[in-house]
């Protein structure tokens, strides 16, 4: 039996024992190349962001050279194409805020309700069938949703069934339909968050004599909060950024929206119309497009950064 | 003999490789407490079968659980110990496709009888799980959860929480951080918190499914001590893989095994033997029990 | 009107469909139906030529046209000086061709029984920027009218139609009250007007004729009596000031070198009558057609 | 061993048997009804939408829709180039976005140092990109193609670039989720055998994540299929008289064709638009169904 | 004093304060095989510290692993057994923030030295995990995976797979279903498949982190038998919670515990004692070892 070779602590390098297997690896050039490709693919997302900023910023700056930023942000009259021009973006912002708000008013309760039902009450078979059907709602082209708002929700549902006096175009109809469009986003992501809550927590609650509703409201929902917040925020982003529904159904009249039965032009709706309109490219009117685009970008960015913080705060490791 | 002596009685016997231990863990001390006589059954299975879908997981189990006693359920994996345990407080209701036939009597009343509220059953017959599963809430809220949801009439929740944590031998360790998340506790502390949570709703019976299998030996020891203390107020049923544990703390032990159907290959759990723990470990009536106890099983 | 949806075999020299190549058209969405109709008919003659029509708007169309990206630019208004300068800077020479006529029709709700003919002054009263907040009901236009609230609908502010109408009615492009409901989609304007008793709107004649059940078409009095908008009145210029021409701009160099483009443009002009009918517009007067032919001829010559 | 119980029970020990379960108390019932209604209303909307579109468009849902080219005469018009254009664009989008998205996700999930500032920034950035309005991607694609000197932007590759940029973050995020769902133990098992990181990813992690990746990707593609806004900014065509036949070919897609038709004065075009909408919804339904089949079929139990 | 001396001849002068427990598991049979002498170290930790972020998880571990011996690492939860094990084949490289200081010598060569390829290290020093983790592939492909990715030069993969499965005592059970998914196997079979997978790449050393803790007693027994068989060809290091298991199969045993820092409350793992298994279980030199072995720990 050989005695142990010993190494004085702190000795520099130890030569390997005679006959010891080599531990140096073979070179793996493919590995290196592929890893660089992967890294480049990930970095591309940053390039995209930079691209967005550049493509918005140039014309937007040209615009802000002529219209002071403050006037743009605080003005309440939006009339870039009228003879008496005015570039206060608040009418567009209020319209966007209202459509978003109404959409959330519909999507958050219904989306969460559907999610809770699917995650906590439905049998697995039912969930497997219903969830994808619900997700289908998210896949319906927004153009189709837009005409649905115009030809069904406003005249039949709102005016006909509910007796609400809305015009052909209204923030209300557009917001409602947008809400329905967002339901699956919120429902599906919240449902994922809730199913990720360990079964053990539900069992623990049931074993204490809590009923299903109590378990859901007091254990599952708080535990899934970060996922639900993330879902709602994605819903908000969708609502702010949705274009076709509002372009078709909310109207094109830029006015300070104080009442959802009014019509109003949202930021995205304005961009879509302006981009397809007959204004001369490069003109001041045309460049408003980019100023509004930039504002939209900054707004969604802000909503998201806040959301990321919130999600971090509520994140729960089990 | 006091409980501490009992738990400190060496559990580790000679266990050389591939040789059966010469002696099974001793449990002689327990005869002073309970007798061969049938216990007053707080809870009793009568001819219970449990099915999952079409598959019969356990068959024909009749088993009484004595008042203020600890009953251990042992047996190889898959023999249906957890299944039986869950049928004792209708937790199986929550498992898709599970069906319980037969009767489970609680103070003589069938918990599967008509008009019985499973939620009420679960409040009376609490449960502690294999992996500690505190809620993602503060320590205080974990304990207060049960009293709140069951609408218990409490004078002072603070007092109740303190008292409960004391009974669960956790108060001293957590009294300064009641408002902190329960997830900051160690595994053993979390499990004691789960026990505290369970006793906060003042159940009669506590069911425990391998409550120590995720814990280290020291934490295990503390839980065992706690169980022995709690025995004075509660009827305890514990499933364990650890035979030494059963020998150390159980008054009575039920040994289950799985019968294999020759044709279908289905394994169905059956109760082989139920007796005083000392009897099961020292002088089992059934050869299958003996084989299992001595590690000769298979 | 000269609308006739039954297809007649397009006339024009058919050299057996031997051509291939590409014709890229972009521009006004108002003119698009014309170009699309032309392309539809042209396909039967020259199936080998790929014609595409996009609707980036008149401004968007000129942007691309002057960057030498497109062959033809559809325009609902004449090219602006800045745009022309850009074309020049890029060395793009072009020919403006009037390709059809359009009448802007003024419509009201069918239940409106107090007006059949509107004067240009009245239009000015209703639509001028100063009216915002003051002229809010029909009674404010003329005391003899009922006190029915005015609800105004019209073309989107980004459209050539908007520019044209505001110029014609108020003497300056973009000079109009802002409290009306603009819409890109004239079908929606129809819905708006048909939904409100006091409603009024303006849009292309074809929309009014297609929706004769839902809206009432007004005659317009330019001081020379009431004139109802028809192909004839638009063509002969008596429907004033709301009759307007629609244009295509053709890239001269490309016209010269691209046989497919040449064939298409020639075909477009030769069949302008049929095309205008298909697209629900008003065809050219003989004089207009002749001018256009001459312009083209000078190009190849 | 069973003893018939004769124990007397105290009231405390007595279980109420009046059948009043706390599961069925009024509040719980109202709660459940509310949940059920939520789901019901969402599904009802979908149904209403499909039915009302069907009523509008059923008359034109015939073979002409598939075989005919657009025409200024509604009776002769069809969506053939739009259908083919949608296929071309979505196919190209998939080719662009899927490999890139998977590569980025693999880097972030499997190789990136989570603590490096840059990688954290990339992560936040991708989350943000996923929330950016689609119309802004249109503006980006216009800028990007302009930069490349592409004159004619309404070509298949142009539309595909816009849509690929749009869905890239979604593909990355769903791929990362699918990769994350693969248990660590599998990777460790592979690495402990002397496999390299890339071998582990290629042979173990990615195959195990395929169901999740394909589900997420199909849903992303179906979103792209229904998008109109970014393509409109590229100067989308409303009239195409030929079948698209390559990356540089002009194209139109179904949502744009639908949008274009609804702007025509003739009511027949609106009927045609409804028919095309139905077709589009049908295609999306098929794609979602495919995603579901994949999800259910290959769902693994670890 | 050299490290080996330190770890192999622990404070013999200090006789244990109290008598060794009479009931400690006997391991006398093993003395026929290994002697008190230091083993030929295939693998050796020299002054190893492992940190996670700033936190020192284990400190100052010097420990040789003898050729063709089974060494067991035991100790309470959180004392750093898994951490040390993972540092033996650089699996810690994959853990965020983990840092290893000191040396781990493999045949005298520091595996953390410059130019050493961790991938090569892991092929030589294989690892089996707590939960069986077969790949979602067929049984055959699970075994063939290692040889394939490491580019091993094999004449016939079929032969290699068969031979390997035979060595892992699994061949007879799976030979008819080689092409079926490994997930169809029972837990015990899956774990043996993982062992087979590991030996297929012909490592020198096999590290096992509680390989039986997810298994039932019968499956555990089979794995233990397998380990004893494999000992003739491989050097085995096993972490176990189950002291009987260590007593049954290990030639030498290292006992770890966690020192608690009074001020910060941080727990740092330290090696308490390393010796022949029989010595550790029958006559430990350190009182902490004895307390742990007899269950009096804490
Ligand atoms: N939810 C379930 N659905 C279907 N079958 C189940 C379910 N739970 C358990 N089984 C089956 O019932 C039998 C008994 O399982 P059970 O979990 O009760 O065994 P156990 O004795 O507790 O085993 P272990 O010691 O591994 O926990 C097993 O064959 C198991 O596969
Ligand atoms: N990835 C990690 N990051 C940070 N700390 C870790 C990590 N892994 C382990 N630790 C910490 O290091 C210490 C030692 O952990 P380790 O898992 O090695 O203990 P162990 O002896 O294997 O315990 P067990 O018996 O529970 O498996 C513990 O305090 C643990 O919390
Ligand atoms: Mg169990
Ligand atoms: Mg460990």
Automatic annotation (TrEMBL), chain A:
<feature type="transmembrane region" description="Helical">
    <location>
        <begin position="164"/>
        <end position="187"/>
    </location>
</feature>
<feature type="region of interest" description="Disordered">
    <location>
        <begin position="1"/>
        <end position="24"/>
    </location>
</feature>
<feature type="transmembrane region" description="Helical">
    <location>
        <begin position="133"/>
        <end position="158"/>
    </location>
</feature>
<dbReference type="InterPro" id="IPR035906">
    <property type="entry name" value="MetI-like_sf"/>
</dbReference>
<feature type="transmembrane region" description="Helical">
    <location>
        <begin position="97"/>
        <end position="121"/>
    </location>
</feature>
<dbReference type="InterPro" id="IPR000515">
    <property type="entry name" value="MetI-like"/>
</dbReference>
<dbReference type="InterPro" id="IPR011864">
    <property type="entry name" value="Phosphate_PstC"/>
</dbReference>
<feature type="transmembrane region" description="Helical">
    <location>
        <begin position="36"/>
        <end position="64"/>
    </location>
</feature>
<keyword id="KW-1133">Transmembrane helix</keyword>
<keyword id="KW-0812">Transmembrane</keyword>
<feature type="transmembrane region" description="Helical">
    <location>
        <begin position="289"/>
        <end position="311"/>
    </location>
</feature>
<feature type="domain" description="ABC transmembrane type-1">
    <location>
        <begin position="93"/>
        <end position="307"/>
    </location>
</feature>
<dbReference type="Pfam" id="PF00528">
    <property type="entry name" value="BPD_transp_1"/>
</dbReference>
<keyword id="KW-0813">Transport</keyword>
<comment type="function">
    <text>Part of the binding-protein-dependent transport system for phosphate; probably responsible for the translocation of the substrate across the membrane.</text>
</comment>
TrEMBL record, chains B, E:
<feature type="compositionally biased region" description="Low complexity">
    <location>
        <begin position="17"/>
        <end position="27"/>
    </location>
</feature>
<feature type="region of interest" description="Disordered">
    <location>
        <begin position="1"/>
        <end position="35"/>
    </location>
</feature>
<dbReference type="InterPro" id="IPR003593">
    <property type="entry name" value="AAA+_ATPase"/>
</dbReference>
<protein>
    <submittedName>
        <fullName>Phosphate import ATP-binding protein PstB</fullName>
    </submittedName>
</protein>
<dbReference type="GO" id="GO:0005524">
    <property type="term" value="F:ATP binding"/>
</dbReference>
<dbReference type="InterPro" id="IPR017871">
    <property type="entry name" value="ABC_transporter-like_CS"/>
</dbReference>
<keyword id="KW-0067">ATP-binding</keyword>
<keyword id="KW-0813">Transport</keyword>
<feature type="domain" description="ABC transporter">
    <location>
        <begin position="43"/>
        <end position="283"/>
    </location>
</feature>
<dbReference type="InterPro" id="IPR027417">
    <property type="entry name" value="P-loop_NTPase"/>
</dbReference>
<dbReference type="InterPro" id="IPR005670">
    <property type="entry name" value="PstB-like"/>
</dbReference>
<keyword id="KW-0547">Nucleotide-binding</keyword>
<dbReference type="InterPro" id="IPR003439">
    <property type="entry name" value="ABC_transporter-like_ATP-bd"/>
</dbReference>
<keyword id="KW-1278">Translocase</keyword>
<feature type="compositionally biased region" description="Basic and acidic residues">
    <location>
        <begin position="1"/>
        <end position="16"/>
    </location>
</feature>
From TrEMBL, chain D:
<feature type="transmembrane region" description="Helical">
    <location>
        <begin position="155"/>
        <end position="174"/>
    </location>
</feature>
<feature type="transmembrane region" description="Helical">
    <location>
        <begin position="29"/>
        <end position="55"/>
    </location>
</feature>
<feature type="compositionally biased region" description="Low complexity">
    <location>
        <begin position="1"/>
        <end position="10"/>
    </location>
</feature>
<protein>
    <recommendedName>
        <fullName>Phosphate transport system permease protein PstA</fullName>
    </recommendedName>
</protein>
<feature type="transmembrane region" description="Helical">
    <location>
        <begin position="231"/>
        <end position="252"/>
    </location>
</feature>
<dbReference type="InterPro" id="IPR000515">
    <property type="entry name" value="MetI-like"/>
</dbReference>
<keyword id="KW-0813">Transport</keyword>
<comment type="function">
    <text>Part of the binding-protein-dependent transport system for phosphate; probably responsible for the translocation of the substrate across the membrane.</text>
</comment>
<keyword id="KW-0812">Transmembrane</keyword>
<keyword id="KW-0472">Membrane</keyword>
<comment type="similarity">
    <text>Belongs to the binding-protein-dependent transport system permease family. CysTW subfamily.</text>
</comment>
<keyword id="KW-1133">Transmembrane helix</keyword>
<feature type="transmembrane region" description="Helical">
    <location>
        <begin position="272"/>
        <end position="294"/>
    </location>
</feature>
<keyword id="KW-1003">Cell membrane</keyword>
<dbReference type="InterPro" id="IPR035906">
    <property type="entry name" value="MetI-like_sf"/>
</dbReference>
């Amino acid at each position: 039996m050989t005695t142990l070779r010993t190494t004085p602590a702190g000795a520099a390098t130890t030569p390997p024992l005679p006959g010891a297997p080599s531990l140096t690896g073979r070179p793996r050039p493919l590995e290196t190349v592929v890893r660089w490709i992967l890294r480049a693919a990930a970095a591309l997302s940053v390039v995209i962001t930079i691209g967005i900023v550049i493509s918005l910023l140039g014309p937007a700056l040209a615009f802000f050279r002529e219209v002071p930023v403050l006037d743009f942000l605080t003005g309440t009259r939006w009339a870039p194409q009228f003879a008496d021009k005015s570039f206060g973006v608040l009418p567009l912002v209020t319209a966007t805020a209202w459509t978003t708000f109404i959409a959330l008013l519909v999507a958050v309760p219904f989306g969460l309700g559907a999610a809770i039902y699917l995650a906590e009450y439905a049998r697995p078979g039912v969930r497997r069938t219903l969830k994808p059907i619900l997700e289908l709602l998210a896949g319906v082209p927004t153009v189709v949703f837009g005409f649905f708002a115009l030809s069904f929700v406003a005249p039949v549902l709102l005016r006909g069934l509910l007796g609400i006096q809305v015009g052909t175009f209204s923030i209300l109809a557009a917001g409602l339909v947008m809400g329905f469009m967002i339901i699956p986003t919120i429902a599906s992501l919240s449902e994922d968050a809730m199913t990720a809550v360990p079964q053990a927590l539900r069992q623990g609650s049931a074993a204490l004599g809590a009923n299903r509703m109590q378990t859901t409201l007091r254990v599952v929902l708080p535990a899934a909060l970060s996922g639900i917040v993330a879902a709602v925020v994605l819903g908000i982003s969708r609502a702010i950024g949705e274009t076709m529904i509002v372009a078709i159904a909310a109207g094109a009249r830029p006015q300070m929206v104080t009442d959802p039965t009014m019509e109003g032009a949202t930021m995205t709706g304005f961009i879509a119309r302006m981009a397809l309109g007959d204004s001369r490219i490069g003109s001041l009117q045309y460049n408003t497009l980019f100023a509004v685009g930039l504002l939209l970008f900054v707004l969604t960015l802000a909503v998201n950064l806040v959301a990321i913080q919130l999600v971090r705060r509520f994140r729960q490791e089990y | 003999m006091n409980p501490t002596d009992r738990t400190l009685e060496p559990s580790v016997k000679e266990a050389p490789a591939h040789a059966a231990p010469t002696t099974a863990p001793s449990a002689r001390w327990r005869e002073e407490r309970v007798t061969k006589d049938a216990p007053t059954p707080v809870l009793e299975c009568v001819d219970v079968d449990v099915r999952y879908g079409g598959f019969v997981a356990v068959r024909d189990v009749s088993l009484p659980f004595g008042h203020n006693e600890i009953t251990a359920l042992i047996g190889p994996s898959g023999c249906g110990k957890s299944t039986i345990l869950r049928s004792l407080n209708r937790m199986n209701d929550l498992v898709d496709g599970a069906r319980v036939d037969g009767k489970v009597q609680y103070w003589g009343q069938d918990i599967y009888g008509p008009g019985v509220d499973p939620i009420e059953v679960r409040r009376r017959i609490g449960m502690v799980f294999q992996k500690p599963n505190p809620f993602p809430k503060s320590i205080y809220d974990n304990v207060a959860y049960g009293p709140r949801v069951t609408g218990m009439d409490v004078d002072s929740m603070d007092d109740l929480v303190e008292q409960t944590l004391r009974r669960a031998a956790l108060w001293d360790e957590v009294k300064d951080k009641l408002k902190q998340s329960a997830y900051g506790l160690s595994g053993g502390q979390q499990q004691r918190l789960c026990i505290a949570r369970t006793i906060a709703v003042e159940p009669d019976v506590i069911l425990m499914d391998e409550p120590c299998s995720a814990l280290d030996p020291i934490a295990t020891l503390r839980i065992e001590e706690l169980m022995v203390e709690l025995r004075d107020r509660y009827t305890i049923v514990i499933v364990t893989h650890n035979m030494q544990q059963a020998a150390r703390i159980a008054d009575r032990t039920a040994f289950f095994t799985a019968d294999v159907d020759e044709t279908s290959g289905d394994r169905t759990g059956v109760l082989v033997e139920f007796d005083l723990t000392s009897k099961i470990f020292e002088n089992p009536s059934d050869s299958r029990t003996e084989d299992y106890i001595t590690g000769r099983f298979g | 009107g000269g609308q006739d949806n039954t297809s007649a075999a397009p006339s024009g020299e058919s050299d057996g469909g031997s051509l291939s190549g590409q014709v890229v058209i972009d521009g006004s969405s108002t003119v698009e139906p014309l170009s699309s109709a032309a392309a539809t008919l042209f396909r039967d003659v020259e199936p080998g030529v790929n014609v595409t029509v996009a609707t980036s708007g008149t401004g968007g169309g000129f942007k691309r046209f002057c960057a030498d990206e497109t062959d033809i630019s559809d325009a609902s208004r004449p090219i602006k000086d800045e745009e022309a300068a850009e074309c020049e800077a890029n060395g793009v020479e072009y020919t403006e061709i009037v390709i059809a006529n359009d009448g802007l029709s003024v419509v009201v709700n069918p239940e409106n029984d107090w007006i059949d003919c509107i004067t240009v002054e009245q239009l000015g009263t209703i639509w001028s920027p100063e009216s915002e907040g003051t002229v809010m009901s029909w009674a404010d236009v003329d005391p003899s009218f009922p006190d029915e609230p005015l609800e105004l609908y019209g073309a989107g502010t980004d459209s050539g139609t908007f520019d044209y109408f505001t110029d014609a009615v108020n003497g300056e492009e973009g000079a109009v009250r802002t409290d009306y409901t603009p819409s890109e989609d004239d079908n929606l304007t129809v819905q708006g007007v048909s939904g409100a008793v006091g409603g009024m709107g303006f849009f292309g004649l074809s929309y009014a004729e297609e929706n004769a059940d839902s809206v009432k078409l007004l005659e317009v009095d330019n001081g020379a009596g009431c004139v109802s908008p028809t192909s004839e009145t638009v063509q002969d210029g008596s429907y004033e000031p709301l009759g307007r021409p629609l244009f295509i701009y053709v890239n001269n160099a490309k016209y010269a070198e691209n046989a497919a483009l040449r064939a298409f443009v020639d075909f477009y002009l030769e069949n302008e009558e049929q095309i205008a009918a298909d697209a629900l517009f008003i065809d050219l007067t003989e004089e207009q057609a002749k001018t256009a032919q001459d312009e083209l001829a000078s190009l190849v010559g | 061993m069973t003893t018939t119980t004769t124990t007397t029970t105290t009231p405390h020990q007595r279980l109420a048997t009046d059948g009043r379960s706390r599961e069925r108390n009024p509040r719980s019932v109202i709660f459940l009804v509310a949940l059920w209604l939520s789901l019901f209303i969402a599904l009802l909307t979908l149904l209403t939408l499909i039915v009302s579109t069907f009523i509008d468009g059923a008359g034109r849902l015939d073979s002409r829709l598939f075989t005919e080219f657009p025409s200024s005469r509604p009776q002769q018009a069809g969506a053939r180039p739009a259908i083919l254009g949608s296929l071309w664009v979505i196919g190209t989008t998939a080719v662009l976005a899927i490999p890139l998205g998977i590569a980025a996700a693999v880097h972030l999930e499997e190789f990136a140092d989570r603590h490096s500032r840059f990688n954290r920034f990339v992560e936040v950035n991708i989350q943000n990109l996923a929330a950016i309005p689609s119309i802004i991607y249109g503006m980006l694609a216009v800028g990007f193609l302009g930069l490349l000197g592409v004159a004619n932007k309404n070509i298949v590759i142009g539309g595909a670039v816009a849509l690929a940029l749009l869905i890239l973050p979604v593909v990355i995020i769903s791929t990362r989720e699918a990769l994350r769902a693969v248990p660590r133990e599998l990777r460790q098992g592979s690495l402990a055998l002397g496999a390299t990181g890339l071998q582990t990813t290629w042979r173990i992690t990615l195959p195990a994540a395929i169901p999740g990746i394909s589900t997420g990707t199909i849903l992303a593609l179906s979103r792209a299929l229904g998008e109109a806004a970014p393509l409109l900014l590229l100067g989308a065509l409303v009239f195409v008289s030929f079948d698209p036949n390559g990356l540089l070919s002009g194209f139109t897609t179904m949502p744009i064709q639908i949008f274009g038709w609804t702007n025509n004065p003739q009511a027949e075009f609106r009927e045609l638009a409804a028919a095309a909408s139905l077709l589009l919804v049908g295609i999306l339904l098929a794609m979602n169904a495919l995603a579901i089949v994949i999800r259910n079929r290959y769902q693994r139990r670890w």
